[in-house]
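WARN retry 2 of 3 for item q-0093 after timeout on previous attempt; input resubmitted unchanged.
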Amino acid sequence: MGRIYDNPDLTALTLTRLAAEESEGPGPLEGRMRDYLDDLEHRNGPGYLELVAITLARVHFKSIDDLARTTGTDAAELLDAAEVEALEGF
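OK item q-0093 returned
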C-alpha cells in the first residue's frame, strides 16, 4: 500500500468499496477488510483507525442528509429508521 491509503478520506473510500464488493454477504472478501485495517493500524497506530471511523461516520451522515433533502424527509427521521432497523437485526 502506498501513502495514498494513509489519508483517512481515501481509506474510508477504500473500505466503502470493499463493503460494496461484499454487499452480497460475507465471503472471501471479508478477510480483505480485516487485513487492510490490521495493516493500517500496524503502520499508523490505533489513533488512525479512530480518524477513519470518524470519517466514515461523517460520510454516512452526509449521505443520509443528502437523501433527506432529495426526498423531503427529515434527516433525524432517517437516522431513527436506520437505528430501529439495525436494532431489529441485532
